[in-house]
Amino acid sequence: MSHESQRTTTTERGRIRVTGFDTSVFEDRDDRFDWQQDESTVSRDRMTRAWERFKRNRTALVGLGIIAVMLFTTIFARPIVIEGITIQPFSLAPFDPTNSNFAALNEAPTAAHPFGTDWSGKDILSRVMFGGRYSLTIGVITVGIALSVGVPLGASRATTAAGSTRSSCALSTSSTRSRSSCSPSR
Questions:
Q1: Of 8, 58, 113, 159, which sits 20 to 30 A from 67 (CA to CA)?
Q2: DSSP-derived 3-state class of residue 39
Q3: Residue-level pLDDT at 62
Q4: pTM of structure
């Protein structure tokens, strides 16, 4: 029997007809498959599912590790002192990034200075580690400003767009006095 001979023709165009659905087969499915309600992914929250998917991606985990190391080194590069109170007392940077060493001007990378020194004798590794604080602070402030402006602006635009669609549908319906494409189909 060919595939075309199994098809039935109908005069109702655009209608989907579901055949062969038997509720008893669906109810018997639980016996054939070993599925339990508590194993369902629907019961887990969105963040748990996102984290599970993230953990399976090796590249993402490597990127997360690099960001964690960078964050750790920038936070612990030099002691953090705010108004005379030491918040973070550790120092990972080998030298003070603001002190000059005129005996080691423009030095190439060595064991003492892994990235070398600049024209004023300052250790480049210490300056990079300490300068990361400013980069991270600028990034956090920028994201905060973008969120504080973008979220309310997007939310107001979404409500305005939904209202304008309804009003334009009402105008088109009243002006044409016929069934509009905006109204739900029956």
A1: 113
A2: helix
A3: 97
A4: 0.53
